[in-house]
Design a protein that fits this description.
By secondary structure, chain A is of the alpha/beta class. Chain A has helices at residues 2-13, 53-60, 75-80, 82-107, 141-158, 185-195, 215-227, 248-258, 261-264, 273-279, 289-293, 302-312, and strands spanning 15-16, 19-20, 23-28, 42-47, 66-69, 112-118, 129-130, 163-169, 171-172, 200-202, 209-213, 238-240, 244-247, 267-269, 285-286. Chain A contains 12 helices and 15 strands. A 4-stranded parallel sheet of chain A has the order 5-6-8-12, with helices on both faces. In chain A, strands 9-11-13 form a 3-stranded mixed sheet. A two-stranded antiparallel ribbon of chain A has the order 1-2. In chain A, strand 1 and strand 2 form a beta hairpin.
Amino acid sequence: MIGRKLAARLADNGLLAGQPLAALHLVDVQEPPVPEGNGNFAVHAQAGDVTVAENASALIAKRPNVIVHLAAVVSGEAERDFGKGYRVNFDGTRNLLNAIHDAHEKDGYCPRFVFASSVAVFGQPFPDVISRGQALTPLTSYGTQKAMAELLIADHTRRGHMEGIAIRLPTIVIRPGKPNAAASGFFSSILREPIAGEEAVLPVDDSVRHWFASPRAAVDFLIHAAGLSAERLGVHESLDMPGVSATIAQMIEALERVVGREAAALIRHKKDPAIAAMIDTWPKAFDPQRAVELGFEAESDFDAIIRAYLEDDAP
Amino acid sequence: MIGRKLAARLADNGLLAGQPLAALHLVDVQEPPVPEGNGNFAVHAQAGDVTVAENASALIAKRPNVIVHLAAVVSGEAERDFGKGYRVNFDGTRNLLNAIHDAHEKDGYCPRFVFASSVAVFGQPFPDVISRGQALTPLTSYGTQKAMAELLIADHTRRGHMEGIAIRLPTIVIRPGKPNAAASGFFSSILREPIAGEEAVLPVDDSVRHWFASPRAAVDFLIHAAGLSAERLGVHESLDMPGVSATIAQMIEALERVVGREAAALIRHKKDPAIAAMIDTWPKAFDPQRAVELGFEAESDFDAIIRAYLEDDAP
């Protein structure tokens, strides 16, 4: 979803890192749709599986100046299928990094590498507000794979093979489209369905607090990371992105303010202890000091997250 | 060196985790020497390269109850040869973990896995005294490989494939034998050579502070980790071991006290700015609270580290 939105934004405005785009290559395991471009540059789309090292090398053979690596097996699937999670989330990333390293040895190639990481690199116990320097103690295979990839990216960056930045995305709401089976899916559905006049189920207490940004902010993060001056970057730039820390009650109040009381009235409370227990282990808030220093910006309140959905995605 | 001493200790007293040993298998890339046993159990030694997955599986096919994984390319070599460092220090470890996972799926096998990690998982900036929860920001490929292996071990442990413990060893002094080319080599040689009546060169200021334990303590750590009750262990048991924080001046004072002024007089001060700059980035001290809670013990002062060498190793 984020990849599709990033592609659409880039195809539309044709700028990255303050430069006009020369070409945009979109790669996914299934050939992704080609967004409408502005006509000033070529947009290519292809199917490609970077868990095969040769495929990663073939992509790097084009010597892209910026690589944004979003491809991943999601948390639930990485937990169900141990081998697949490591193969896609870790080995796929490593294949890209090895291909970049080989190209660097050959001709000094040194691209910007923007990696979509996750707050799942953190596991309990952690403080209510997580700051820079918090140790990574993931409690999922997905979080472990992201944490290992962050370390590997930092080592390649330190050695000068590339300029790596890992972006730890907040939970992204409101996701457009249909409800999905993810444990975090209700964070979107309790807003998206009522906006469409449909009922939605809230499986946790409304005192639950979590950390959010909009899909629009996520695209902003990736584009900002691609354009940051190399002089400002250190070796270990695994960055907690800015976001909005909100309780479910605050999210519902925002829905009332921005959309109306009748929307909020469509939320049914039906507790699911399994989901509640899982959400209870997730981060509640961050102090994204380093990212803010580097100019990353997100919404400043939940009303803005809802407005972004209404402007960008609501049917 | 630690592996050889561990093998000798086990072969001699025949106990591990409070149980009589049934068999002791020693594996290294070159066939290791067989220590003298006490006759109550078999001691096997073989050459084996765990960077080949099939070799790792063949070792695990024996279903050892305890695996102590020390094999590694040292820091300097991992920095010179990027591919070899990752192959041995990361992929070799991963092959063992995957083989354990496969065995677990087959018959519920769940061994204790003791991994020799390193304080090189920490990189500047860090506080003068490092506590539990310090983020891992390695500034060497060796440290990165150890940090990635720690994460992978924690994930296998969380999933119940094995009981993993990573032991972050202090700098081990006094190493027996000849001077080596490691940047940290002088920490041993400024003591070992004078004890043998020979001159040694000190390449850094005597105000430099670092974190130490004896080879004997390192063997104690590994044996203690092998025997800890599983009930006491969490998922992320990557443990900073206890040790002695000492300046070079304090080390030399200890040498004077334990061996004599004439020994200390054999140390020549000849500053090497490259070594000094590197040592400056290393940890100075730890608060090894979790390891102490779990019963790990080291020397309490530097005199004891010197005495351990005189008793165990001095020619």
